Amino acid sequence: MRLAVYFQRPRWLLLLAPALLSGCWTGGAQFPDTGYLYEWEMDPDQPPIPFGLWGLNGFHDPDGLRGVQEQFGISAFHTSTYSPSYGVGMLLPMVRDAGLRVNLRMAGDHGYYTTADGDFDLGAWKQMLAPWNDSGVQEFIDDGTIAYHMLLDDIGNFEGLSPTGDELDEMARFSHGLLPRLQVAVREEAARVPHPTSGRFEHLDASINQYMADYGNVEEYALINMAAADELGLEIVNGLNIADGGDGSSLQPGWSQNRHAMSAEEIVEYGYVLSAVPGCVMFMAWEYDGQEQWSDGSVGSDYFDQPENTEALRWLGLRLAGVETDRP
Length: 328
Known about the structure:
Elements: H1 11-22, E1 51-55, H2 62-72, E2 76-80, H3 84-97, E3 101-105, H4 122-129, H5 138-142, E4 146-152, H6 165-178, E5 183-186, E6 206-208, H7 218-232, E7 235-241, H8 264-274, E8 280-288, H9 300-304, H10 307-320
Helix pairs in contact: 1-7, 4-6, 8-10
């Protein structure tokens, strides 16, 4: 008998959480007819889950946004700007007019808030965010154009000391005070987010998971991060690293050296599981970019424009929207 996973905060998971988080649970034998331990059915009563892509560089204009939306069926995307004048004056009206939502990193790249020793600098980060105060951005928060403020990308990538759990919660508190009613998230697997002293976050709303084949069995990954998010009091934004997270079967060199992009089959296989995780509030794939060159000199958007890859991503978007459709 397989278990259909489409109920909220399941009791069996909470009982398993200590073993999952300690790495003691190794799953069980997979069922031969589906290849999955659980059915991973979508909850038929849940509202559509926003689906989007990171980046969209080269498509930040009305025609470009509409084209990507029509091609992949996205309802959101992620980008970054630390310029309130550009954000409020150009980007956000364009996003709203396209009927999309955006996750926005608003304090710039790591270099703006890194000390000479390579440590994260909380005070400098706050200074980078402060210009958004009274910038006119609030109307785009209130109408839902901005879905999340992503406080920090890849929180463990500082050469020196990365932010602590308490610092992440203080960043979230500061953002909430500056930008009322805007949810905040960090880009890190829930199981790797540093814990605050209290054990649960008071202000941070969500962590953004980004699965790669290197992380191992996708079902165990889903369960471990679901348990971790529950323990920390965080919502789950799931996603795939489609540009660098493949197992090599695509034969397409990735964005980084010695990495591979995901194949269409991988997008479907991993997305099938991660889209059905109870409590998932958004799904984002990294990345679709029309400007950056990958490690082999190609441009990533050209790869995902291939029919089989477009079909896989579009299927994933339909699944998240609650539309029944056959798997590619």
